[in-house]
Write a structure and sequence with these properties.
The complex is a heterodimer of chains A (about 375) and B (about 350). By secondary structure, chain A is an alpha/beta fold. Helices cover about 45% and strands about 20% of the residues of chain A. Chain A has a 7-stranded mixed sheet, with helices on both faces. A 5-stranded parallel sheet of chain A has the order 2-1-3-4-5, with helices on both faces. Chain A has a 3-stranded antiparallel sheet with strand order 11-12-13, with helices on one face. The chains are: A alpha/beta (about 375), B mainly alpha (about 350).
Chain lengths: ~375, ~350
């Protein structure tokens, strides 16, 4: 085939895709998520949550007087550089009226300026870094932020574990991890604790061997080790820490919240603690109802990201109804006015900085297939 | 003589066309515009890597590293250091933006070229796999250094970069890269690159300074990768060090191999093809007339992408435009010299 013929063949469907009109009644919402790559469970589970919310909304008559919501999902492969193209495509080709995503703070930070510029509201289910919503007044989230989460774990270490000496192992590649370390340290040190050693590694599949860092952590004899990374590394770190004879519990944030944590970490990660958004063992009927429906649809236990995706979509649907239209500025104002929304991850109130204020839970890692145990709930 | 003029006229025409196209960029769907810009940037990256990998036969896996240096250097210059120039030129107008962007891109390119020189001089005495490993390591070092530099955002990434990149800049740079690479290789001096690739020992025996040729190719390639990085940073307006990992280097190498090592036209075409293919696959999952299974497979773009690569490599191992016999000859190394060979300068 001639090069030009080939090129024409490739571009023709592009043009066709743009030209096919959607049914007039449908409201199109975009979603970008890490469906593949190193943080795949985040994207898969949060988009499962979104899908569950969508079923409920559309079966219940849709929004804005009977209009159904259609979601278009783009995979960003857990890679920087991808969200920019994905979100540009969603906004300018698919003409979405709002965007849901992402769990990762770095990737949310990449997409946020694009949504802000296009005046398309973006609701992040789980980006906890404080800077994400600072991008502009169209960027919202339904989760708590790292200053709160870091403080929760520091408080928990001091009060519940009675730990006074902490070692920290940060993923320097990860904005989220660096932020958590900073807030953890601030609270912990100003309340009588001591950080005995601080080590770092490169996450996202780069580092696999943490023995050098762990050996020096062992020498510092901490009461607990704070590992605010993602689940892949946390699992590996736990295994290597135990094999080096570090017996103290590991502490983490919501980046640990994945069924893969126990799969990777095995018995080594058992008995460690992490803060997150929700516990599937919570007896609240709303939570139990969600867990039951999630299990029926996906045949799996929801982790913390699934209810966040669910709540993000539900908050957005409620805002659409309150706005009475799909125009960006109207939806934005409605999102900013969300108060005491009764979500699966708690009562969500959007504050002046477009963050959700709500409680965090601390879970203790159980064995593989047993799920995590609820330990404490910490209110803001 | 006549041939050289054709090339210069072609460059001029390309630049003028880019400028004209730029006038209409406002009416293009912003997503398509970004894809078109990425195509131009990838053409620059691939053709500049082709000078190193294709024409000079040095297997470099560090192109993403050079691109990262260019991206960060130019982003830093345009956000932190351009206020004074803007003031002197009476604020942000078309002229001052154009001038600053040109300077900033040049700065990014020079920073990357310097890095290319620093890496190139010691490491280009190595050959083949060994050079590949050194350049791979270098790319990762750059990434880790940026991750730990708080002034440019560290792991948070660098945000708030001005969106200066236009069709004109992207395609003028792409045309210039192609022009420089072609002129270099076709000149008397440039024959040295091919000689180094085809038989290094023979080249040395006739008095060609092989290390110098390799370093020249490396520095020039790095320069254009740096400029491409600058264009990229000012397109996406947000850059993150994890975006410049070795996978990106490999993606550029794939463009070179797919297009045919040492064929500028082929490599440029492969860059266009691969960029379009990756973006086009986003739409396949959205076609409702396709069977559900096909759409589900298509929603995982990388599977299809990899299948296409495997198919193309099976059907045309020499690349789309490559000339196989010459390449195979160039790959041969004398059996008497196993392992890393130190070339005498």
């Amino acid at each position: 085939m001639k090069p030009f013929a080939r090129l024409a063949l490739l571009t023709l469907p592009l043009v066709l895709a743009a030209a096919v009109p959607l049914p007039a009644q449908e409201i199109v919402v975009g979603q970008y998520a890490s469906l593949t790559g190193s943080e795949a469970t985040f994207g898969i589970n949060s988009s499962n949550g979104v899908a569950l919310a969508l079923d409920e909304i559309n079966n219940g008559g849709g929004v804005l007087g009977g209009r159904k919501i259609k979601i278009i999902t783009e995979d960003d492969q857990s890679k920087a550089g991808q969200p920019s193209s994905a979100v540009k495509k969603l906004i300018s080709s698919d003409k979405v009226i709002a965007v849901v995503g992402e769990i990762s703070s770095s990737r949310s930070l990449e997409a946020a300026p694009i949504c802000q510029e296009a005046k398309i509201p973006m609701v992040s289910p789980g980006a906890t870094n404080a800077r994400v919503t600072e991008v502009g007044d169209y960027i919202f989230r339904v989760c708590f932020i790292d200053p709160f989460q870091g403080t929760v774990m520091a408080k928990f270490a001091l009060d519940n574990l009675k730990a006074t000496k902490i070692a920290i192992l940060t993923d320097v590649r990860n904005d989220y991890s660096v932020g958590l370390t900073q807030y953890f340290k601030e609270y912990f040190e100003s309340h009588g604790g001591k950080v005995v050693t601080e080590r770092s590694f490169s996450g996202g599949g780069t580092d696999r061997d943490f023995r050098a860092q762990l050996t020096s952590i062992k020498a510092a004899q901490p009461d607990a080790v704070f590992v605010p990374g993602y689940y892949t590394e946390a699992g590996l770190i736990a295994k290597q820490a135990r094999s080096l004879g570090i017996k103290v519990p590991l502490l983490g944030g919501d980046g640990w919240d994945s069924p893969k944590l126990s799969e990777i970490g095995g018995s080594a990660i058992e008995g460690s603690y992490f803060s997150t958004h929700f516990s599937p063992k919570d007896t609240n009927p709303k939570v139990q109802d969600f867990v039951k429906r999630y299990q029926a649809k996906f045949n799996a236990m929801p982790d913390g990201m699934a209810p966040l995706g669910y709540d993000a979509m539900m908050v957005l649907a409620q805002a659409l109804n309150a706005a009475g239209g799909t125009e960006g500025p109207k939806v934005r104002d409605a999102l900013a006015a969300v108060k005491e929304f009764d979500g699966v991850t708690g009562k969500i109130t959007i504050d002046g900085k477009r963050n959700a204020t709500k409680a965090a839970v601390v879970l203790k890692v159980g064995g593989q297939g047993k799920g995590n145990d609820f330990v404490a709930s910490v209110a803001p | 003589m006549k041939y050289r003029h054709t090339k210069q006229i072609a460059l001029l025409v390309a630049v003028i066309l880019a400028a004209v196209a730029s006038r209409f960029s406002g009416s293009i769907n912003p997503y398509y515009l970004q894809v078109i810009l990425f195509i131009g940037i990838n053409v620059t990256l691939a053709t500049s890597l082709n000078l190193i990998n294709g024409y000079t036969g040095q297997f470099s896996l560090g192109h993403a590293g050079f691109m990262a240096i260019g991206a960060y250097a130019s982003a830093y210059l345009s956000t932190e250091k351009s206020a004074g120039i803007f003031q002197a030129l009476g604020g942000a107008n078309a002229f001052s933006i154009a001038l600053i962007f040109a300077l900033v891109l040049l700065g990014g390119g020079i920073a990357a070229a310097l890095a290319g020189l620093i890496v190139g001089v010691p490491s280009l005495r190595l050959k083949g796999d060994y050079l590949a490993i050194v350049t791979l390591g270098f790319g990762e070092i750059i990434r880790v250094l940026i991750q730990n530099t708080d002034a440019v955002g560290g792991p948070r990434g660098y945000s708030g970069i001005a969106g200066y990149t236009t069709l004109f800049w992207t395609y003028a740079v792409a045309a210039l890269t192609i022009y420089v690479v072609l002129s270099m290789v076709d000149s008397t001096y440039g024959r040295g690159f091919l000689t180094v690739r085809d038989d290094e020992v023979a080249a040395e025996s006739v008095g060609i300074n092989t290390t110098r040729y390799k370093v020249t190719a490396f520095v020039l390639g790095a320069f254009f990768a740096g400029v491409a990085g600058g264009l990229y940073a000012h397109t996406t307006t947000y850059i993150n060090p994890s975006g410049f990992d070795f996978q990106l280097s490999i993606q550029i190498v794939i463009m070179v191999i797919l297009g045919g090592m040492g064929s500028t036209a082929g490599v440029a075409f492969a860059a266009v093809l691969l960029t379009l293919l990756l973006e086009y696959l986003r739409f396949v999952a959205g076609y409702e007339w396709l069977p559900d299974l096909v759409r589900r497979i298509a929603s995982n773009r990388m599977i299809i992408f990899s299948l296409v690569l495997i198919a193309l490599m099976l059907l045309r191992p020499q690349g789309l435009f490559g000339a196989l016999p010459r390449m195979a000859g160039g790959r041969k190394t004398p059996k008497s010299q196993p392992g890393p060979t130190i070339a005498t300068p």
